[in-house]
Amino acid sequence: MNRADRHPSRRAFLDATGAMVATGLIAGCSSDSARPGPPAASAAATPVPATGRHQAGVTLPRSAQRNLLAVVADLGTAVAPGPLLAELGETISTLTAGSDPRLLGLSPGDLTVTVGVGPRLVRSAGATLPGAADLPRFSRERIASRARGGDLLIQICADDALLVPVVAAALLDRAGDRIRERWRQTGRRGTNVSVAEGRTAPRNLLGFIDGIVGPHTTAEQERDLWLAGPPAVAGGTLAVLRRMELDLTRFAALSVAEQEAVFGRRRASGVPLSGGTVASGPELGAKTPDGRYLVPVDAHVRRANPTVVGVGHMLRRSYSTDEPAPGLLFISFQNDLRTFTATLSRMDTSDALMPFTTTTASATFLILPGFDHQHPLGSPLFG
Question: Fewest CB within a 10 Å sphere: which of 28, 74, 212, 247?
Answer without folding.
Answer: 28
